[in-house]
Amino acid sequence: MLNSDLFLTIESSKLKFTAVDEQIADYFLSGKPPLKQSVLARKINVSAASITRFCKKIGFENYKELMYFYRKMVKEHSNDKNKVTRNLQYRYKEMINEIDEKIDIEDVKLVCNYIKSHKIIHIYGLGLSAIAGEDFKFRFTRIGKYVEVVQDYDSIEMISSLLNKENLIIYLSLRGENKHVIQSLRRLKEKGATIVIITSNQSSDIGDLANVTLLTSQIKNANEVEQISGQIPLLIIIDVLYSQYINMFRENVSKWIETEQAYLQGH
């Protein structure tokens, strides 16, 4: 009985293929357009008889029967790709809309003012959140801010013991549930440090910890985690912050860039 997956059927027959058979197989395995037997023979420079022998080797009576299954497979494969693309596009749009509904532009402006008024910014983030933190660092370092990304429990605890009311801490976490980090933030709050939390966690516990909480979209289920990188909802908020910061402090940013370029040219 022929395997329902034509591509797998071809792959599993490779041990008995000649060089000509492999040439024919490569055409089909590449998912190229279905062609008449005579046209295909000319296109890949083999004989029509070789194509017929190939069909029989993989379990078909003739080329017409192979074409029936091949057209079906190509169509299904194309539909699957289109479905994946449509699903991702829909989810990205849904994510943007969700963030747009949650975000308060006045809170964004307040965070931008915090960033401007602090010489050093500490970003707390674990795992994928640390990757988003590195993006924040890359962007804001380019416009004159000193950013340190702290991305493990021990370092967070140690750094937190050294910080005080003069410091700005931005905690990146979709769930916002890590007990170790929460404890460190509580101690920092007691010392009067400025705390910004970017998260999808809307609990009052998180809200009470921060001077400002910027809410982002959440990854809704396990399947979505596999399809969408976990840092994307955080990166979107970072994009918003960066764009707003540039808009608010364009003159300062331009002066810093000019100063840096003059310094580099002098060395």
Short summary of the structure?
The chain has helices at 6-12, 19-29, 37-44, 48-57, 63-102, 105-117, 128-141, 153-162, 179-190, 204-209, 222-227, 232-248, 250-265; strands at 120-125, 146-150, 168-172, 194-199, 212-215. 64% of the residues lie in helices and 10% in strands.
Topology:
Elements: H1 6-12, H2 19-29, H3 37-44, H4 48-57, H5 63-102, H6 105-117, E1 120-125, H7 128-141, E2 146-150, H8 153-162, E3 168-172, H9 179-190, E4 194-199, H10 204-209, E5 212-215, H11 222-227, H12 232-248, H13 250-265
Parallel strand pairs: 1-2, 1-3, 3-4, 4-5
Helix pairs in contact: 2-4, 6-12, 7-12, 8-9
What would you say this structure looks like, in words?
By secondary structure, the protein is α/β, with parallel strands linked by helices. It has two domains: 6-81, Winged helix-like DNA-binding domain superfamily/Winged helix DNA-binding domain (Arc Repressor Mutant, subunit A), CATH 1.10.10; 103-265, Glucose-6-phosphate isomerase like protein, domain 1 (Rossmann fold, 3-Layer(aba) Sandwich). Helix content is 64%, strand content 10%. The protein is built from 13 helices and five strands. The protein has helices spanning 6-12, 19-29, 37-44, 48-57, 63-102, 105-117, 128-141, 153-162, 179-190, 204-209, 222-227, 232-248, 250-265, and strands spanning 120-125, 146-150, 168-172, 194-199, 212-215. A five-stranded parallel sheet has the order 2-1-3-4-5, sandwiched between helices. Helix 2 packs across helix 4, helix 6 (105-117) crosses helix 12 (232-248) and helix 8 (153-162) runs parallel beside helix 9. InterPro entries: Homeodomain-like_sf, HTH_RpiR, RpiR-like, RpiR-like_SIS, SIS_dom, SIS_dom_sf, WH-like_DNA-bd_sf. Residues 111-251 form the SIS domain. Pfam families: HTH_6, SIS.
